[in-house]
Write a structure and sequence with these properties.
Helices cover about 35% and strands about 30% of the residues. It is an alpha+beta fold and about 300 residues long.
Amino acid sequence: MRVHPREGPARTPRSRASDRVAFLPAVGTIAAVASSPTVPMTPAVVLGVVLLAIYWAWVAFFFARVRPWLMARIGSRLGVRVRESMDILDAGTWATSGRGTTLPKSGLVMAADLAILLVGVVGVAALIFVPAFLLGESGALLPLEARLTGRGAEIRVPGAAEMTATTFRSRACCRSSTGCRSSMPGSSQAGSRTCSTTQPAVPPPITTVSQRRTTSTPTTASGCCLLDVANTGREALRDCYATVDGYSARNGYLRGRSARFDLAAGETSRVPIALEAMRPPPGSHAFRLKLECANERLATANAELRVR
């Protein structure tokens, strides 16, 4: 039997058969993992991983090349020797040594080292990740994610949401269709739909000044907004809901959320959203709505709020 000097002895037919038997479970495991219904990596996740890898590569290059070169240039300008400390207490810091070392020069070198660290580490991180965060929050990557994952949706607000400041809270507009007026197809305002709440003319209870100070309730506004949701993906969407995206004092801390619903592939539905705000200022205010399905954001849309 011939044996290669760099290889082991030839395998017998029995050992090869045992390898095949041992290899079959591994093949089955890989096939099961490949066929499992996992969600592929979205462009936002891929972008985040790439940016993180680029940042760590820059950090390694910064500490190995950029920072020593800058500190050497600063030391030559000041006429002193600058070296990196290897002591346990101040390891990694740069200080002056040798002839010409003075207290002002040592302080200047330490201040320059701190400024270089802040700009090279924190400044570069802000320059990379802040625009990426703003890009991801704007929803610009959601259409691209829908093409890759097959899970996509589009939302559209057919009209402005209207509110009337009141001390009562009512969601009758979203519980029934009596509070939402829809124009007939033949009218001049065909296709428009307005949703607002009207409260019954009930006089408020008579209270004294002391009771008003202790039992007064803040003025709230309630209303309803309609949202057209279309499933543009290749698969059904489960456990979906629409909600107000963001929290701002400009619109009275507007909040609202729809009931959970499902959408089949290619299905379109009109979803009501109950809205509430705390002391909203009169006028027109812009806000944003988002659609989430199974805790995954799929679409965003801008809307308008009118407070009377």
